[in-house]
Write a structure and sequence with these properties.
This protein has 252 residues and is an alpha/beta fold. The chain is 32% helix and 21% strand. It binds iron/sulfur cluster (SF4).
Length: 252
């Protein structure tokens, strides 16, 4: 793709995640790679049921084993082109959901888009894997709601991103934020313990959403989810169990 290496942002204080520079190329900053734009109900997290406009950014720095977002294709948009495309949608939206992939991989473009949509009167809702605190710090001023993941290694099949999640949550909690944790049959108690400790130490009041792995289905993870919900309650966390509602409804 002819990408040029750009300086890491904002510096060594944040943990480095493999692939985090993938889409931060200097020569492509004014264009964004967008997979799709569509309107639908929000199907995940505490805002499920809200009517939103979705702008799906292409590419991700992770590769979770339960991922339902295929790499697929993208179209490159200049800022004005994307804004024109957004203006074609005429619904009364709760928010524009910037989703992925991982939108923060294209933080320079995202930053401009967020500023424009904000000025146009939209609420900005950022769906993110919670591993790129540096880029979040650069766009957070124009974000209204942060829906972040904590990725448990025993669920994703990947390493843990604890330091990155900690720094991320600290920033996200300046805004309206909630945390989504995908629970699979492979999810380990020690990962849950680490996640709860992280939340307790960083932003204890943040709502936790336990999301059963849709590929396995609720029946297979029900026992684990119910135990976890009890544990969260006992330990004073604000917790909900919310599946991917759009999948249950057969919509995207
Ligand atoms: S962070 Fe999200 S988009 Fe990226 S691989 Fe994981 S589930 Fe897929």
């Amino acid at each position: 793709m002819g990408l040029v290496e750009s300086p890491r942002v904002p510096g060594p204080k944040y943990p480095e995640i493999p692939g985090a520079d993938l889409y931060l190329a200097q020569d492509e900053r004014m264009k964004g790679k967008i997979s799709e734009i569509f309107e639908s109900i929000q199907g995940e997290g505490v805002f499920f049921g809200e009517w939103q406009l979705f702008v799906r950014f292409y590419g991700c720095n992770l590769n979770c084993k339960f991922c339902d977002t295929k790499p697929g294709s993208f179209r490159e948009y200049k800022l004005d082109e994307l804004m024109s495309e957004i203006k074609k949608f005429k619904g009364q939206y709760h928010a524009i959901s910037f989703t992925g992939g991982e939108p923060l991989l294209q933080k320079d473009f995202l930053k401009q888009v967020l500023s424009r949509t904000r000025r146009a009167g939209f609420k900005n809702y950022l769906e993110t894997n919670g591993t790129l605190p540096g880029p979040l710090g650069e766009v957070i001023d124009d974000v209204d709601i942060v829906a972040m993941d904590i990725k448990l290694p025993s669920s994703t099949g990947l390493p843990g991103y604890w330091d990155a999640h900690r720094a991320f949550l600290k920033l996200a909690s300046e805004k309206e934020a909630f945390i989504k944790i995908v629970v699979c049959s492979s999810t380990a108690e020690e990962d849950i313990t680490a996640a709860l400790k992280l939340v307790k130490e960083t932003a204890r009041q943040t709502m936790l959403v336990l999301q059963p792995d849709s590929f396995e289905g609720y029946a297979r993870v029900r026992g684990k989810i119910e135990n976890l919900r009890h544990r969260c309650r006992r330990e004073g966390f604000n917790v909900r169990v919310i599946p991917q509602m759009h999948k249950l409804m057969g919509i995207r």
